[in-house]
Structure to design on (431 residues):
């Protein structure tokens, strides 16, 4: 069986979309004829706050674990000076200077690179074992450098996987214009070099694919588009969980970004609550994991204190626990924006759960296409659309004690199906 070494900095027990994508490869690659070796940071436990990202691993020894799926190489994390200053919340200016220096030096040297142990662990493994292909998923994007270097050193083909855009990501819109231009020139030249050396480029978002083709100047035939998908095993394990039948329950899981139009949803929700004279016994809106960042919780609860009793915030949960809570909901919220287009990975988990989706605000792009293709929910352009959708869905809830929603060709959006796309491409390249 051919073997693929995978750089996946994010991996369980870290609970993030970035961790779940390579986790699915580890689960399903072997089923399709490709043996995975995952090189990842040793996440000792689930992070409870963003500061845990900068703390050392509890286990300071390299771990190599083999199981029925493949091999896990768990690399201990050793924080550098910048990381220690972040944890202690000291010397803000020095931290920023160090971060800026690290951002560009790590693509040219291992000095100051706080992820470099991943490279060393992979290099040591390849010296002693046969590896047929290297796959690297970002972020951090420096993992592309590691794959590129090892590809040259050992003459092994490699591929880059974009979970998000690197220099074309929507988050680039939130940094100062001058710094953005600097990134596009300096960091952009590095990205283009890696794009040219990669055997193929995998992207999870069709919109990123379109931007990259133009930005990187790489032939369209070099791209494949495996989506994030939903976890088959976890979704199947929740088959007995029913929708709430006594309280109209709306759910949202994960991060709320500054560009997402939470305000439109809350304004429409306020009008809906007042119009129907509802009490917290009639309606609950659950924001799972929103307490991880204090500013997110404040944004939810302080927008309109009139409805704060209807809104429930929670700490981060395990992925399975989060899915369980969402499965009990009647309606699932998806926050978007037509000015900053990005495909939220949670849309596929919503498809897997087969709960109706309320999109706020309609991106008139990739999310709209998926919702129309699956007939998966309602697309709202403003708070009035939110109000009307909530009224219509609440009436369905009152009539049936549930809101029916079947997704067209559901398996198409599973992580198992999407993993096969990558395996097929790698095996094709190795012929």
């Amino acid at each position: 069986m051919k073997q693929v070494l995978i750089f996946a900095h994010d991996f369980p027990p870290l609970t993030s979309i970035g961790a779940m994508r390579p986790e699915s490869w580890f689960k399903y690659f072997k089923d399709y004829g490709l043996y995975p070796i995952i090189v990842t940071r040793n996440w000792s436990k689930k992070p409870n706050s963003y500061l845990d990202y900068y703390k050392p691993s509890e286990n300071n020894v390299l771990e190599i674990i083999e199981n029925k799926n493949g091999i896990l190489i768990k690399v201990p994390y050793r924080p550098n000076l910048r990381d220690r200053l972040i944890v202690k919340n000291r010397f803000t200016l020095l931290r920023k200077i160090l971060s800026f220096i690290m951002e560009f030096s790590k693509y040219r040297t291992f000095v100051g690179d706080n992820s470099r142990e991943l490279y060393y662990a992979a290099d040591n493994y390849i010296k002693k074992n046969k590896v047929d292909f290297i796959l690297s998923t970002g972020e951090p994007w420096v993992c592309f450098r590691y794959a590129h270097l090892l590809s040259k050193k050992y003459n092994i083909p490699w591929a880059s996987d974009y979970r998000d855009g690197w220099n074309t990501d929507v988050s680039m819109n939130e940094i100062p214009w001058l710094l953005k231009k600097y990134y596009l020139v300096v960091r952009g030249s590095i990205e283009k070099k890696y794009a040219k050396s990669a055997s193929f480029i995998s992207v999870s978002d069709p919109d990123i694919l379109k931007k990259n083709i133009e930005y990187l100047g790489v032939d369209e035939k070099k791209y494949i588009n495996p989506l994030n998908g939903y976890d088959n095993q976890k979704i199947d394990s929740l088959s007995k969980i029913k929708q709430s039948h006594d309280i109209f329950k709306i759910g949202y899981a994960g991060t709320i970004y500054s560009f997402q139009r939470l305000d439109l949803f809350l304004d429409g929700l306020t009008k809906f609550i007042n119009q129907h004279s509802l009490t917290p016994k009639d309606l609950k809106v659950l924001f799972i994991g929103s307490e991880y960042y204090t500013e997110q919780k404040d944004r939810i609860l302080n927008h309109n204190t009139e409805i704060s009793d209807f809104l429930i915030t929670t700490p981060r949960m395990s992925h399975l626990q989060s899915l369980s809570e969402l499965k009990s909901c009647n309606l699932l919220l998806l926050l978007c924006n037509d000015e900053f287009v990005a495909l939220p990975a949670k849309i596929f988990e919503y498809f897997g759960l087969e709960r109706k989706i309320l999109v706020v605000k309609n991106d008139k792009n990739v999310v709209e296409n998926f919702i129309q293709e699956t007939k998966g929910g309602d697309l709202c352009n403003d708070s009035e659309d939110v109000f009307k959708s909530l009224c219509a869905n609440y009436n369905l809830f009152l009539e049936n004690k549930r809101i029916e929603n079947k997704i067209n060709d559901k398996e198409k959006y599973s992580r198992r199906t999407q993993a096969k796309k990558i395996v097929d491409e790698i095996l094709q390249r190795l012929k």
